[in-house]
Every structure is written in C-alpha cells, then in structure tokens.
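2024-03-11 09:14:02 INFO worker-7 job=invfold-0412 stage=load source=structure_tokens
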C-alpha cells in the first residue's frame, strides 16, 4: 500500500468536523430558507396592512410602513375593532366551531374503520373498492353541490348543520381513507396476528392496538380537515344558506368587505383573527404531522 493510498483511507476514517458538515448541507438550508422567506413575505404584508387605515393602504405599499416603523400615526387597531365589534361575529365563531368539529371527527371515525377493513380484513372486492374510493379524490366537489342540495331539499335538511356535516364528510372521506389505509397497512403484521391468536376480535384489535398506534396519521388528517372546513365558504354558503343565525366566520367576513369590495382592508384583520384557532390546532398536533404524512411511504 502506498503512502498516498494510506493518507486517503486515513482521511476517509477521520471524523468530519462541524464546519465540514455545515458546508455539505448549506445548499439545502439555503433553498429551505429562500422558500420560507418567499412564503412568509405575503403573510407579513397582510399583517402590516391589518394595522393600517384604508387611506394609507391605498396611498402606499405595506413595505413603506416598515420603513416608518416607529411612527405611531402609521398604525391603528381600527380594523380589528371593526371586525370584533361587527354584529353576529361572535355567533359566527360559534357556528364555525359547530360545523368544523363534527365535520372533522365524523370523517376521521368512518375513515379509520374503513382503513382497518381495507388493510387487515379479507373480503371479496376489497382492492377494487379501494381503487374506487381513491378515484373519488379526483372528482371536483363543485359537481356534487347541486345534486346534493336537491337531495337535502327533498329530505328537509337544507339549512341545517347536519347537511354541511354530511357534505364535508363525503368530500373528505376519500383522502382520509387513503392516508389512514397507508399508515394502518404499514403496521407490523405480527402485532395483528398476535392479537388474533390471543382471541381478540377485529373490534378489540382496532380499538386497543390500531387506534393508539395510528395517532400520527389521525392527527395529520385532523389538521387538514379542520383547516379546510374552518376556511370553507362555498360548501357552507350552499348548504347552510346566508341567514345570520347559521352564518360561519367566512360568510361574515365577506359581508364586512361589502358587496363591491369597498372595505377589503377589513379582511387583513379578519384573516389574522380567524387564524388564531387553526394555528392553535396545528401547533398542538404538529409533532405528529410529518410522521403521519411520511408513514407508509417506505416499506422495509
């Protein structure tokens, strides 16, 4: 062995220093940082605009307010006061909760049972039925609004919370079943077989083993579904109607903006007020988020 070869092998066995590891990863970090900044800039502009009057917003861009950061006359809480003091806004928050919570819990419950059946129960046509369920993910929900509304009118369900719960459940089930089936199907087969050998029924196996082990996937879908339902305007407007007693937050915000959009600056404050609860849900479940999305994607 030559001296040069010995030096190369010695260098390969040498522990890498911290600076070397950082240099190897800096391109990835730079890309992530750039994407993060590009994503946050619009939100920063929205936040700055929420503290400015309509006249100032129309006169100059939000970045000019950052230059004059310490001039108090540039800032106002009027937009937030207008949103919070609006008639029916507190009731709209309660209506949104009454819609979002059941519309999140119901599809998760149904999808968890379906995912377990597709993963660990043998029955005829299982794979074909699963393909059909996944295929429903590509159907635009707008195509189903009018037929569903006609059915709800015939059943006297139009304008009720049950109507919007069932609608969100139907629209959310394909994605929920797909995500949960991938996760539950990746659980070790030995655990399921051991439970069956011990005499556990499918019902006991599902509640005592599968559900506790599937918390990451369930939490991931809960974040998706809650954010979608909370921010929804179209489905709520079609199936609940525009009456004040059942109006949700998104409907009340559109009414504050005005029919001609003359008060659009109110949306900047309303957006951050309505973001409080979804952010709380996300940060309370975010430790499960990445695990739930990546689970089942790699076999081994």
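2024-03-11 09:14:09 INFO worker-7 stage=emit residues=300
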């Amino acid at each position: 062995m030559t001296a040069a070869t010995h030096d190369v092998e010695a260098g390969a066995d040498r522990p890498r220093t911290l600076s070397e590891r950082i240099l190897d990863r800096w391109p990835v970090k730079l890309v992530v940082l750039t994407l993060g900044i590009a994503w946050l800039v619009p939100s920063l502009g929205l936040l700055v605009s929420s503290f400015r009057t309509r006249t100032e917003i129309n006169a100059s861009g939000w970045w000019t307010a950052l230059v004059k950061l310490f001039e108090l006359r540039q800032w106002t809480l009027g937009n937030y006061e207008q949103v919070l003091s609006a008639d029916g806004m507190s009731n709209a928050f309660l209506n949104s909760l009454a819609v979002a919570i059941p519309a999140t819990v119901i599809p998760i419950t149904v999808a968890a049972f379906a995912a377990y059946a597709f993963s660990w129960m043998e029955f005829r046509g299982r794979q074909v039925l699963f393909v059909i369920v996944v295929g429903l993910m590509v159907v635009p929900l707008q195509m189903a609004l009018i037929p569903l509304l006609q059915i709800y009118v015939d059943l006297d369900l139009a304008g009720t919370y049950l109507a919007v719960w069932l609608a969100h459940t139907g629209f959310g089930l394909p994605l929920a079943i797909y995500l949960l089936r991938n996760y539950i199907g990746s659980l070790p087969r030995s655990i399921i077989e051991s439970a069956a050998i011990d005499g556990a029924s499918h019902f006991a196996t599902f509640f005592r083993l599968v559900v506790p082990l599937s918390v990451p996937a369930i939490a991931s879908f809960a974040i998706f579904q809650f954010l979608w339902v909370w921010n929804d305007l179209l489905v709520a407007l079609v199936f609940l109607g525009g009456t004040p007693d059942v109006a949700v937050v998104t409907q009340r915000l559109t009414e504050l903006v005005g029919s001609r959009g003359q008060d659009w600056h109110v949306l900047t404050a309303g957006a951050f007020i309505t973001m409080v609860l979804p952010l709380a849900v996300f940060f309370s479940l975010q430790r499960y988020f990445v695990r739930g999305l990546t689970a089942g994607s790699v076999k081994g």
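2024-03-11 09:14:09 INFO worker-7 stage=report msg="The chain has a mean pLDDT of 81."
2024-03-11 09:14:10 INFO worker-7 job finished
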